[in-house]
Amino acid sequence: MQKKLTINDIARMAQVSKATVSRVLNRHSSVDPVLRERVMDIVQQYNFVPNTIATELANGRTHLIGVLAPPLNWPAIPEILHGVSEHIEHTRYEIVLYSMNLERNHSDVLDRILAMRMVSGLLAILPGELADHLDTFFQQGLPLVMIDDQKEPTHIPWVGIDNFASAYEATSYLLQLGHRRIAHIMGPQHYYCVVQRLEGYRQALTDAGLQADPELLFQGEFEPASGRRCAETIFAQDQSAWPDAIFVGNDQMAYGVLEVAEAQKIQVPEAVSIIGFDDNLLSAHMRPPLTTIHQPFTEMGYQATQLLLSMIDPNYQPDNEQPTRIQLPTHLVTRVSSASTHPFSLKT
Question: How far apart are CA 34 and CA 26, in angstroms?
Answer without folding.
Answer: 16
